[in-house]
Design brief:
single chain, Rossmann fold, Luciferase, domain 3, GMP Synthetase, Chain A, domain 3, 3 domains, 29 strands, 39% helix, globular
Length: 648
């Protein structure tokens, strides 16, 4: 697509001036911004930023929830040839220091007092940071720090500049080219400092257009933007594709109202990582467990039919007229009301990505008529590498390469990708760029996988994490920790898992329970508990988790390659793994090395055959205070099975 984001915005404003571009829920009421109003807002913001000294090539950080004026700010920055750098709004202030200094940031646009406070806290560590503009003025009336101001004042200054020089904005937009840098996204930084992934207008819009064509998206779609803008997935769906398609992006009032807002909006195009779908299903199952026996019976009967008929119906496979009739009756009684209560009554296309999704979870949503599919991509590939076509959605693959994408496997099994959506470079990191991109344009994905007979891509694990067992009955067998962890997380009672086994004789695992699901399970059995740590160490909970582990082992025993990855021993951690404690990234990927170092005493206890182990762990509380939690953790054994051959 030979254009830029600001030009697309102006095209929509000319062609559909009164059509809705953005909606924001404020004080319980949806407020609409049309394309013409958006264009006017972007013009004033860009002129105001230019008046403040922003020039082409500079970086501007954007921090906050999805808000129309933050979207407009990114367009304004791009209009001047500068580069927006969205950062995670839930990050601690210390996590901002590296990206701000690495990108030599002078200007920042933030949502509210929380983000202002974070930037003021680290300002002495970021000497170039001169100007901070905020959207929501609540709580900031008496702040008088130099360089701090409201977006309202920026807009006012921009309007005056635009009045004095009416041609300035259009001239600036006309200068921009598709190969200009459009945005920079910092990676999760699982093994060190995050890397700045540099994308051009062309790379982002090419993939946005490819996704649009693949799923036949139009300006009539509605999207709910509730994931962080710093995550490339949300940025592509609610920014790049928004401008490529011209559909409506809806911004929730707050994180606490997302579920309600989802029902009110009824999006037609939906995107979420598996943990969101897991949470929705857990909520449904908890509600059903608390329902009357008649409702539970009806739900179970209808879901038995749905699992047999629903996916085949969505996949366009033959379904008998009697089953089709039964499904329609079930739709009237259960599936339709359920989709409506989840906010999925209008969903035409729903995608999940970021982690593997459990087959039961995947099947549940497709069974009730939600066209849930998987995709594969990354920050470096502008997301869209593989997508699942309608009628070819499977839980064990991530789809087929879409237009413009080539895939090949290195001799090591690593997936190599060539695509118009590849990053331009890692900012100020030529060594990392040279390591990721071959001279002839292939990107090292870092993932291990293969293309099946139908041309669908299957992902096994991160290439660097695939190891081998050493000694014991499975000496030399492949060990794929993420594959094992994902199988554990398919159970609603397990929120997170970390597996160990490379260069060891057996596999062991840490488990985080899902406190809502396990808590509900415990309450129905009249098991009293005094919080997460207490619940996690109940012997009944260990038996529950042991059953999950042994079901995973039975599944792994059927896999010739990974039968050796069965879990021999496990423990349930006394606290949830948390990004604030340095154990996970902001996108909830485990920092394997940091966890091993922090909990080495537990790893040693697992492999030493101990039955329990005391541990004390430093934690950071939500209010910013530091403290510690301690517990004596049980260590459980799990039954493993000899490798079995799948039935023919």
């Amino acid at each position: 697509m030979l254009t830029t984001f600001p030009r697309l915005m102006l095209d929509h404003a000319r062609q559909r001036p009164d059509a809705a571009a953005l909606r924001e829920k404020e004080y319980g009421i949806w407020q609409t911004t049309s394309w013409s109003k958006l264009a006017s807002l972007v013009r004033d913001l860009a002129c105001g930023m230019a008046e403040a000294g922003l020039v082409a090539g500079q970086h501007v950080i954007v921090v906050g929830d999805n808000r129309p004026r933050l979207y407009a700010s990114m367009l304004a920055v791009q209009s001047l040839g500068a580069v927006p750098v969205p950062l995670y709004q839930d990050a601690a202030s210390s996590e901002f220091v590296f990206p701000i200094n690495n990108a030599e940031v002078v200007f920042a646009v933030v949502e509210n007092q929380e983000q202002v406070d974070k930037l003021l806290e680290i300002r002495d560590q970021c000497p170039r940071l001169a100007r901070i503009w905020f959207d929501d003025p609540r709580g900031l009336r008496k702040y008088d720090q130099p360089g701090l101001g409201a977006i309202d004042a920026l807009i006012e200054a921009g309007a005056a500049r635009s009045h004095r020089d009416p041609g300035f904005f259009d001239t600036e937009v006309a200068k921009r080219r598709p190969d200009d840098v459009a945005a920079m996204f910092f990676t999760s930084g699982t093994t060190g400092n995050p890397k700045g992934v540099v994308h051009t207008h062309g790379s982002l819009l090419d993939r946005a257009q490819a996704g649009k064509d693949f799923d036949r998206l139009t300006e009539r779609e509605e999207v709910l933007a509730y994931m962080p803008l710093a995550w490339i997935g949300q940025n592509i769906f609610s920014y790049a594709q928004w401008l490529a398609c011209g559909y409506i992006v809806n911004c929730p009032e707050s994180a606490a109202t997302v579920t309600i807002d989802l029902k009110e909006v009824g999006p037609t195009y939906y995107f979420a990582p598996p943990r969101i779908f897991e949470g929705l299903l857990t909520t449904v199952m908890i509600r059903m467990e608390d329902a009357s026996s008649l409702k539970r019976w009806l739900f179970q009967r209808c879901m038995t039919l749905a699992r047999r008929v629903g996916p085949a119906r969505l996949d366009g496979k033959p379904v008998s007229w009697i089953d089709r009739l039964k499904w329609r009756l079930g739709d009237l009684a259960i599936y339709g009301p359920l989709r409506n209560s989840l906010g999925f009554s209008r969903v035409r296309v729903a995608y999940t990505a970021g982690e593997a999704i459990g087959p039961d979870l995947f099947s549940f949503f497709r069974s009730i008529g939600v066209n849930l599919k998987q995709l594969y991509g990354s920050t470096e590939t502008a997301v869209f590498v593989c997508l699942q076509p309608d009628h070819e959605a499977r839980s064990d693959t991530v789809g087929v390469p879409i237009a413009g994408v080539q895939i090949k496997l290195a001799d090591s099994g690593e997936i190599l990708i060539k695509s118009p959506g590849l990053l331009k470079e890692y900012y100020k990191n030529p060594d990392a760029t040279a390591e990721a991109l071959t001279p002839d344009g292939w990107y090292h994905s870092g993932d291990a996988g293969f293309l099946d007979a139908d041309g669908h891509l299957k992902i096994i694990d991160r290439h660097k994490d695939v190891g081998r067992l050493k000694g014991g009955p499975h000496d030399g067998a492949m060990f794929a920790p993420k594959y094992v962890e994902n199988k554990l997380k398919f159970f609603p009672y397990i929120k997170e898992a970390v597996a160990f086994g490379d260069q060891r004789s057996v596999v062991c695992a840490f488990v985080n329970i899902d406190v809502e699901a396990v808590g509900n399970w415990a309450e129905r059995r009249n098991l009293a508990y005094a919080g997460y740590a207490d619940l996690a160490q109940r012997p009944e909970v260990y038996e529950l988790i042991r059953d999950c582990v042994e079901q995973v082992n039975a599944d792994l025993a059927m896999d010739d390659m990974l039968a050796g990855s069965q879990i021999s021993r496990f423990l349930v951690l006394h606290k949830e793994l948390d990004a604030d404690d340095g154990e996970m990234t902001r996108t909830r990927k485990v920092k394997r090395g940091a966890i091993f170092e922090k909990y080495q005493v537990l790893v040693d206890a697992l492999y030493a055959g101990k039955t329990e182990q005391f541990i004390e762990t430093a934690v950071k509380f939500e209010d910013g205070r530091s403290g510690s939690v301690s517990a004596t953790l049980r260590i459980g054994d799990a039954k493993t099975l000899p490798a079995l051959k799948k039935a023919a």
